[in-house]
Amino acid sequence: MRRISVAGSLVLMLTLTLLAGCGSDSGPGTTALSADNVNLIFVVSPDLAYNTPGDIQSDTANLTSQGLNRSLQMASYLKQQVLGSKSVNGIYALSPMTHLQTVNNYPDMTAIGFIQQFALLNQITLRIDANGTTYTGNNYPINVSYAEWGVPTGVATPTPPLPGAPSYCPGCTGLDFNNTNGDNDTLVTGIIDKKASGYYVFSAPWETIKALLTKINTRYGYNLNLPATYMGTNYVYAVSIQSSGKASLVTYNSKLNPPATYPVLPAPVASAACTNKYQPYFSTVLTGGVNGITVPSGINTNSTIYIVRHAEAHPDPGFGFEDGNYVAAGQWRALSLANALRGKISPNAVYSIDPAGVWYPNRDFTVSYVRPSLTALPYAIANNLPYYLAAGISLGSAFNPTDATVAQDTSNFFFTGGTFSHQTLLVAWESGHIKPFLNALMSSYGVGSDKLLPTSWPSEDYDTIWTVILDAQGNLTVHNALCEGIDSPKLPATAPLF
């Protein structure tokens, strides 16, 4: 055999090292990731093309009770086994309107819904007033907003929250199923190139996760042995990058076996009577031809819409805590909403705000406004109802909820044009916008400004339900006699564990 010189050996070793790239595969995950590394953690949410059997409804493209249970259990697994109980540094989910499914074009709410419980197992400290006072809340923001030029066709372009601000969020973009202009690649490579150690969690369908893993592997030459096929929603993939630039792929199998029945909370939720404690009782009936009332042209008929606010979001005494998401106490409300509303309402569909369509700065960073859509999601899952986002209308600036144009556009969307005639809806909305669009509706009947609702919504009121009824002739009834019946002050401050 021909001998190789020492110099030749060094050259050979260097060549083999270069051929191997700067990555490795550490195989199945049995230990938590190191906080000293940049950890990109990919959670595979189910969609119609790739799902674990029983996790997704084929007709509504939404999670089933089994899929919801898996997400709740996966949250604990991620927090304990993958992060080692450490805090997350960023959560990114698919923008729902970038992935429409079935002939009915249902938005993909499963990705953001699949990661919400995990977000609530973390904490974040924010400034809550101009004096710099801080408060630590039991939750974490979820980035889901559209990137520049990433707004899908038919979706309203987000309104800049402040003069001079862009319409897209510079710090809270989510994932785009179509990866428009390479936005997903830009997002992830930006995190890698910044080299800020920590845990960055991404929730999206397999198609998006696979493409991102491939892009990372190719761009940085990690030479990782990526999964060739879809393995199911129990699998979590982590690319862990050391300060030296060496990367490894860690594959975790949670081996979850969730039940097919709707999740059972670990403790009962305290109920509360509907006493109009925070909002005075209001009821009006507007009948065409009576007391100067005129039924407007094009008004819907035989329609009932129940309007609720998002779950608990401002836990500090001054209600200054704000990160776009609801806090852990709100998860008790959201998960118990189906039981709380049983026998009170019977909608045939659920609507909410596009979580990617509204963003704004708090005192520390920019946030996506995700909480109304996530509040109503468990109710839709429990009742297997179609879930839609009113993505075609703008909510305007988050700092100007009484904008007259926004109020009129929202009123027109829900109450005119016949789309929701002969329909009963549950609508989860931003509280400051609710009474302005109800006023716009009543004004269209000829109601004077002196008889309209005060536009403010009490910060501590998460329970009131506003009901709008249009009869066969378009005569209007508006009242707030109903409530969810959940005692907000008695909700636990930490999330339920599964």
Provide a quick synopsis of the model.
The chain has about 500 residues and is an alpha/beta fold. Helices cover about 25% and strands about 20% of the residues. It is built from nine helices and 19 strands.
Would you write up a description of this structure?
The structure is a single chain. The chain is of the alpha/beta class and 498 residues long. It folds into two domains: 21-253, Rossmann fold (3-Layer(aba) Sandwich); 283-490, Phosphoglycerate mutase-like (Rossmann fold, 3-Layer(aba) Sandwich), CATH 3.40.50. Helices cover 24% and strands 18% of the residues. It has nine helices and 19 strands. The strands form five sheets. The chain has a seven-stranded mixed β-sheet with strand order 11-19-18-12-17-13-16. A six-stranded mixed β-sheet has the order 1-10-9-2-8-3. Strand 6 (124-127) and strand 7 (134-137) form a beta hairpin. Helix 2 packs across helix 3. The chain is globular and about 80 Å long.
The CATH topology assignment of the largest domain is: Rossmann fold
Low-confidence stretches: 1-21
CATH architecture group name of the largest domain: 3-Layer(aba) Sandwich
Nearest-angstrom radius of gyration? 25 Å
The residue fraction in helices comes out at 10-25%
- Global outline: globular
The CATH class of the largest domain is identified as Alpha Beta
Q: What is the terminal separation in angstroms?
A: 63 Å
Question: Given the structure, what is the number of helices?
Answer: 9
How many discrete domains?
Answer: 2
Strand content: 15-25%
Query: Spatial order of the strands in the main sheet?
Result: 11-19-18-12-17-13-16
